[in-house]
């Protein structure tokens, strides 16, 4: 058996709606998007900022349902600006023999913007 780390879920091209440097840390994500992507509160995620190329890890905090909010908190707030587009990704480990069964959950956040 060989374990591999693979993409579990992704929120693609979500717009940053806020940055709160004085919060303890994390990324606040719309509850609906969390459910669609299969993300859990306090789960570790990687965040990629499309606007400036920053890549960093943090953990998820559940935001309001239907708000489309993406708020970077704590030190991560220095890596974004309101209005930036980000990709939020979570990974999992699977047995390489199960690779063919893999179906990452992907949310295309930019479809929600008018």
SSE order and pairing:
Blueprint: E1 3-15, E2 18-20, E3 26-29, H1 31-37, E4 44-49, E5 55-62, E6 70-73, E7 85-95, E8 105-108
Parallel strand pairs: 1-8, 2-6, 3-5
Antiparallel strand pairs: 1-7, 3-6, 4-5, 4-7
Describe the structure.
This protein is mainly beta. The protein has a single domain, classed as Beta Barrel (Barwin-like endoglucanases), CATH 2.40.40.20. It is built from one helix and eight strands; from the N terminus they run E-E-E-H-E-E-E-E-E. The chain has one helix spanning 31-37, and strands at 3-15, 18-20, 26-29, 44-49, 55-62, 70-73, 85-95, 105-108. Strands 2-6-3-5-4-7-1-8 form an eight-stranded mixed sheet. The model has no long low-confidence stretch (mean pLDDT 96).
Features:
single chain, 114 residues, mainly beta, Barwin-like endoglucanases, eight-stranded mixed sheet, 1 helix, 8 strands, globular
Briefly characterize the structure:
The chain is mainly beta and 114 residues long.
How many β-strands, per DSSP? 8
Terminal Cα span: 47 Å
The protein's oligomeric status is single chain
CATH architecture, please? Beta Barrel
Specify the number of helices.
1
